[in-house]
Amino acid sequence: MEYSLFILIAPFFLFLVLGLLGMKMKPKVAGIIGTIGMGLCAICAYTVAYQYFFQTGRVGEEWQQFIPVNFEWLRFTENLHIDLGILLDPISVMMLVVITTVSLMVHIYSLGYMHGETGFQRYYALLSLFSFSMLGLVVATNIFQMYIFWELVGVSSYSLIGFYYTKPSAVSASKKAFIVTRFADLGFLIGILILSYYTKTFDFGTLTANHAELVTTSFAGGTFMGLSLATLALTLIFMGGAGKSAMFPLHIWLPDAMEGPTPVSALIHAATMVVAGVFLVARLFPVYFFAAPDVLTLIAYIGTFTALFAAVIAITQTDIKRVLAFSTISQIAYMMVALGVSDYGGHDGLGYMASMFHLFTHAFFKALLFLGAGSVIHAVHSNEMSQMGNLHKYMPITNWTFLIACLAIAGIPPFSGFFSKDEILAAAFHHHQVIFWTLWIVAGLTAFYMFRLYFRIFWNGKRDYNEHHKPHESPLAMALPLIILAVFSVFTGFIPFSDFISSDFMPFHTHIDWTVAGMSIVVALIGISGAFALYAKNSKQPAQIAQSLGGLYKAALHKFYLDEVWMWFTQTVIFRYICMPIAWFDRHIIDSAMNGLAWTTQKSADSVKGLQSGQVQFYAWVFVVGSILIAVLVLFF
Amino acid sequence: MIRLEYYLIISTLMFFIGIFGFITRKNMIAILISLELVLNAVEINFAAFNRFLYPHQLEGMFFTLFGIAITAAETAVALAIIINAYRSIGNININNLNRMKN
Prior knowledge:
The structure holds two protein chains of two kinds.
Chain A: H1 5-21, H2 27-56, E1 58-59, E2 62-63, E3 66-75, E4 81-88, H3 90-113, H4 120-138, H5 143-161, H6 168-199, H7 204-219, E5 223-224, E6 227-228, H8 229-244, H9 253-256, H10 262-271, H11 276-283, H12 285-291, H13 293-316, H14 320-340, H15 350-380, H16 396-410, H17 416-429, H18 433-458, H19 476-491, H20 514-535, H21 541-549, H22 551-557, H23 562-608, H24 616-636
Antiparallel strand pairs in A: 1-2, 3-4, 5-6
Chain B: H1 4-24, H2 28-53, H3 59-89
């Protein structure tokens, strides 16, 4: 399957072509070239997926890991070498499908959405760069290749969030996203170094083989500050994943990242890049499970808390993209929890499968939600809910597709989100009651805030649109991706995921646990009817409830002041107690050492430069005196 | 017979008088003359040592002759330079020859 390399080369080539020659093309040409290139890439990914899942992937029962392409990129010593290659196994092939599909939809959608924007060609070039980096990340054969593409993803995300670089808020949002994820990646890098220092390898295959035997034996009880080194390394690696996947408390960049163009939010900050952290943990799952099960517990708790926390904030937000951003955080936290509560092997590995399943379905319905939101923003030219309402009359396609996505994320059968969320809840149910009940509440909250969003946009709310500028349905380029993604959102839930993806590569059978499923349907319906009661008709009740909650509501509206806490932390602790002393040291110690050196050189040069007078007679005098002195020394001493 | 020491004393005196003149005089002709004194002091040494150490050989004498010839050539070149310098700056004071430096 060497042709899978094409999936990587195509977007990179597109990036070069559009980035270097884009300005010489008409915007439309650049957009169409980008879209067609991505289409070819998607076709190739589908071919790889078909061939892998239905022809060559399985030997006997077990799914195989293939490495069709691999070459040594940097070689330091026999053990230490960095390879670049393509690893095909069930999760990476699934990710290829997800990324290329969503990316293609976003490419098509942007033809309409970004029409007439300045920098249209740059936009497509950056989309291609992002697709390349993300695809490279998921097929990475070793942890270092993953890290390289991980950073590339961060860079392209940075430049796409800051696409409207004349807007100060977009610039600061892009910087925030980059710095926060970069801070987390510092942990990731240290984790990689510790891990590979002990195991002497970067390779995923070697690390995870035989129940991660290599990791458990090579660390052999090394401890640091009371923690086993394996735990420490894997926690640090998870920190990188938490940064990218916006886990509490590193989630602060994701809501701000909504400053980017909406299709970018759909591609990067909903469907693909933000699940990189989940993918990372899934990729190293055997290592986590066998070498550091404590870290998995930690992941489960952080995920549970983040899910609840983000869902509560999402209820109060009024910017539709921010609601979706917090919903994304909450749903990714769901996937993290599923990994955290998972066991290894067979049906015990349900959580692992559920996590990947939810990642898969979530990518489609969340991308659909974002693209639908983009379509609405395109029509009313605002992000604020108060500027919307009653749009079902004007935008039927957006209305129906958005409804489908809302039903999917709320977990109503038979939409895809129901199946994946049910598996996660089932996995949590068998693992830990507190986690299960929290997730159950979050499921209700999810249904509530999604339908609050839906009703406020499409039904109740503003009705008096300007006669001359009525909202209108989006053009075909935008409607088509919505329809395609809606189809995906309806049907992907029926894929028997456990046949394809499992923690130990052995297919197993799942069945819907109707106790859990029933409970999740009930809570989703409660959420929806709550939203219906409060928001379907124009009423004063929501404001009253907000009033009665007082401080809690205000805190949630301000995202629990986490931004302010981080700001305080950076300004006071980091700037004052770390940066300022370092700056002082630099300015006073390092700089004065250098200045002193220069001063000494200058002074000594000044004092001896008179010797070089150009007077030959003086030179002769010095020469003679010197010779006489040497002669005297030689003769008498 | 005149002893070797006398030759050497004379040549040493000449040598250091030459050096002293070379260092202190500002007139280029005087410097050239001082230089001649230094070279002639050396040639006296050659001749004297040849006479006293190896009386049956003539290498020292030949060297003296070579020295005289080279000195003459060098004097010619130096005088030519001095004349050019005079044409250029109007005098032959060594301290005034600093146009290249400044």
